[in-house]
Amino acid sequence: MRRNALYTILALAVLALAVVPIGTAVFVLGFIDGDSPCVMCWEQRIGMALIALIGLFILRYGPKPKYVGMGVLVAAWGVFMGMRHTAMHAARDVGQGFSLEILGAHTYTWSLFIYWVSLVLMGLLLAMTRKEDLEDRPRTLRPLEALAGIVFLVVVAGNIVQAFASTGPPPFMGQGDPVRFSFSPSHWVWSTEEWRPARISLRGRWAIDQPDTANLPSDPARGPLAPVPVLQVSRRTKIGFPLQGTPTDLAYDPATSQFLVTTQHGVYLADDTLGAMRRYTVVDAGYSVDLGRFAGAAFLDKGAVLAVGENKSFVVLQPAEQANAAANFRYFLASFDAFDELSRSRFGTVRAHMMYVLSAAYDPADHSVYTVSVPNNKVKRLVVSRFDRRDMTLSEEFTPELARDAGLDLSPKRSLNEYVVTGAAVADGALYAISAAYDTLLKIDLASHRLVAAWAIPGLSDPTGLAVKGDELYIVGASGKVWVVPSPRS
Amino acid sequence: MEFLNLVVILVTAFLVLRRPQREKLAFRLLVFSVVLMVFLFSMATRTSLLPAVNY
Fold first, then answer.
1. Domain membership flag for residue A181
2. A20 and A112 co-located in one domain
3. What is the spatial distance between Cα A8 and Cα A128, in angstroms, rounded to a whole number?
4. Which of A24, A121, A449, B40 has its CA 20 to 30 A from that of A471?
């Protein structure tokens, strides 16, 4: 009795699988609505058919380990297929997706759920299987089980018709962007596009190296712009206090006459000569939002300081005279009573989505935080992103173009995207950006979005940060050296 | 190729339902279909085999 109940449940599962996802997909979405599966949808649909087929094997031959095992393998592969396909669209704007939506989810997402349910059912089947269930002879199918088999045959036959029209006979196979289904052969498109040579990769366009400025070309004369006037270093100094890590950015606050220095995870406030440290902390970058390595620093309003990671995650800290050290244990790894953590989140971008940043700047005039993307092995684009301080959300993005009256020319086949901006600061409506590539200072007008000037600064070594202090620009390097140049605006 | 795979699935189901004594052949066809499905999905996603998201 118990065994019959188990087979009844399995027959119903095969029926449900055949009718709901596979049958609906071909007869309703396909033949009536004209939907045509993409190549990945096809394999996901076939995987579901294979699980139903394995169900028929078990109905006929009993829950032999090789059948249940094959069911687990196919369902596990199906979960992977569902994840792979859903990941392509899961993070898009609300409501967006690929092809048809059913009950609030697109077909590829439903397949992920169905495969997961199949895995659960296979687990239950395994748990409930007893030795006496393993039969040597094929079972005689009861009417419900035979019905499941017939329905499965009809559904697969329907899919064969759709597959012939949509994908064609071998060697043709499914397409990434299939045309609408039609019974008319004049609308059939058979393609071998998926057979074309293509580079095999694990992560594709997401295989992006983290930024590394150690081996960038530094000679300004080899940069993409010419002729670039020279801006001589007027003074050299260095950070006069020990740091945990190496300097990654610099900022200056005229209101408090303080410098802000960041290291990989450290935040330091120093006097206006960079000779003495006033307070510091080391942020626990792995707690909550993964901050990565700090690459940008800026003073915000009311004395708050901003540290931005290479991955555009950020933390906002408020210097505090009597911070609760016990409460701050969770946020910091050292000096628990120097700052309070105000917020920790992420900057989201569009054009710079696939790029890291190595700089940050704040413009109190329009309450905006700026970041500049750095090129990588996949994407080479100079993108300036502006975020509203009130909600730390993207307000604007642009890719600067060279102003006609800048007195500069781009060399043939060269691009502004070659610059690697590692430090930035806002002054007088312009973004000053120091590039570790070609040791060049760039001036980007924030109103016109154009590069209006550039200066070569000989003698730098791996510059990582930039601050404006009065009529001087301070450039810090990874070694802790600081180069001071007269502000070109003066 | 999906057409071919579905035909193989249909034949396999027919064997299971109408020629149950051909169990070995049916299972071999099942394995063929599974391998073909895995191969075709991998072909279609070979430029980025893993889901394209942050890890």
1. no
2. yes
3. 14
4. A449
Q: Do residue A263 and residue A125 come from a single domain?
A: no
Instruction: Report CB contact under 8 Å: A169, B5.
Output: no
SS3 content of chain B, % helix, strand, coil (to 5): 75, 0, 25
Domain spans of chain B, in order of start: 2-44
pLDDT range class, residue A435, cuts 50, 70, 90: very high
Residue B1 distance to chain A (closest CA, Å): 5
CB A388 within 8 A of CB A380: no
CB-CB contact of A350 with A394 (8 Å): yes
Instruction: Report yes or no: B6 at the A interface, CB cutoff 8 Å.
Output: yes
Q: Is residue A82 in a domain?
A: yes
Look up the ipTM and state it.
0.97
Last residue of a domain, one of A141, A171, A201: A171
Could you list the beta-strand ranges (E) of A246-329: 249-253, 258-262, 266-270, 277-283, 294-299, 305-309, 313-319
Q: pLDDT per residue over A227-269, tens digit each?
A: 999 999 999 999 999 999 999 999 999 999 999 999 999 999 9
Nearest to B34 among A42, A50, A168 (CB): A50
CB contact (8 A) between residue A174 and residue B1: yes
- Tell me A140's DSSP state: P
CB A360 within 8 A of CB A351: no
Query: How many distinct structural domains can be found in chain A?
Result: 2
Write down the pTM of the prediction.
0.89
Give yes or no: residues A131 and A272 share one domain: no
Phi, psi of A41 (to 5 degrees): -60, -40
Tens digit of each residue's pLDDT (9 = 90 or more) over A92-133: 888 898 877 888 898 889 999 999 999 998 998 888 888 877
Across the interface, of B37, B46, B50, the residue whose CB is closest to A47 is B37
Length of chain B: 55
> Does B33 sit within 8 Å of A46, measured CB to CB?
yes
A198 touches chain B (CB under 8 A): yes
CA–CA gap between residue A116 and residue A482 (Å, rounded): 57
Query: Quick check: B34 and A74 CB within 8 A?
Result: yes
Q: Which of A134, A155, A171 is the last residue of a domain?
A: A171
Any CB–CB contact under 8 A between B20 and chain A? yes
The nearest CA of chain A is from the CA of B33 a distance in Å of 8
Residues A325, A435, single domain; the answer is yes
Q: How many CB atoms lie within 10 A of CB A41?
A: 24
- Is A421 part of any domain? yes
Domain that holds residue A336: 220-486
